[in-house]
Amino acid sequence: MKKTKAEIGEGGLFDARQLGIPRMLLLGLQHTFAMFGATVLVPIITGLDVSTTLLVAGLGTLLFHLLTGGKVPAFLGSSFAFLGGFAAVAPRLADGSSNLEMLPYACGGVVAAGLVYVVLAALIAAFGIRRVMRFFPPIVTGPIIISIGLILSPTAVQNASTNWVLALIALAAIVACNIWGKGMVRIIPIILGIAAAYIAALFMRQVDFAPILEADWLGFPIRRSAMAKFDLNAILMIMPIALATIMEHIGDMAAISATTGKNYIADPGLARTLLGDGLATSMAGFLGGPANTTYGENTGVLAMTRIYDPRVMRIAACFAILMSFSPKIDAVINTIPTAIIGGVSIILYGMISAVGVRNVVENRVDFTKPRNLIIAAVILVSALGINFAFETNGLTFQAGDYTITLSGLAVAAILGVVLNAVLPGNDYEFGKAPEETSGENA
Fold it and tell me: What's the pTM?
């Protein structure tokens, strides 16, 4: 039987060999654009260096691919989960400038947080994936993935609201290219959407070229004074955040698996993906950058383009590294109006939640069972409610002399795991087809 294009190569719409180098480069550039807005937003908020952030995102992605055998189409960008930790350890000064004295200690806490991943990876390797994954069935991971997209959604709308005309142009161009486009036009809708909206911005005089003229062509992206320093208080403040980002990692692995139709939690295995993410985070913190995390934004691009070749992510990582050495390129990309990024994000963040729904549906989670309804309800309400109800986007409590903030997503993940473990009827077995299991996926 002759195979269709959707059945050959890396499991996507086209065989990677049919794409060729020019198209692969464009696809990589598209993933770079997808991660750029969120990745550079973290250093803008915390006071870390943008160039360093781009460098560690690229290097972290390459390290992740090395440790996972180059099998997982994932990009590692800046994690928003650690913003509260940075704000606690290295708050901006009264005049709004970066707290250059304390930022290295916050980065030291990020190094320690990455090591938490390594410990969990070792436990999985020692006790087996089936025992661990019993705590993370689709009824837990699906609502978590849905929550990730919904939590990101206000950011997309806020960015788009700065200029709805540009946001809608970007949004309309992406939809048109994806629905009615042919060939390469359908594969790179994000780039074309950004290009169309940027041209409109030029005509509307919404682009400021002054930063481009003032920026240098070359610059070294690492500042020695910003590299990690270690303090126990900072470590205890930031390290527990890893509990939240580990859950995000598992959710992202489930999302990427659901998107591509391949089970990356089984191969290369959750132990190796956690190890890659953890060591990438530790490396990022050591060099003076924010924590890394697998990026849902790029999962949205995967869902849209249906090109799942991991080499595209490695190309995107190389673009990020190259950009980190050129303040001029950084300035050019920063001239893209916020509204355009918002328009693009409306599509991408929605795709993340849609993938979560797909994960639940494809695993045939039975919502006529009270335990499944309870678990999903608690995860969704606690994740969204806690995130939006408090200024810290989480629950803050005292542990001795230390103040710890758990994000809404972290609380939701913990509650979901606990409820799944204690409520009767959990007979989920990792690796079995949905029709082979009962209780969870009847």
Answer: 0.67
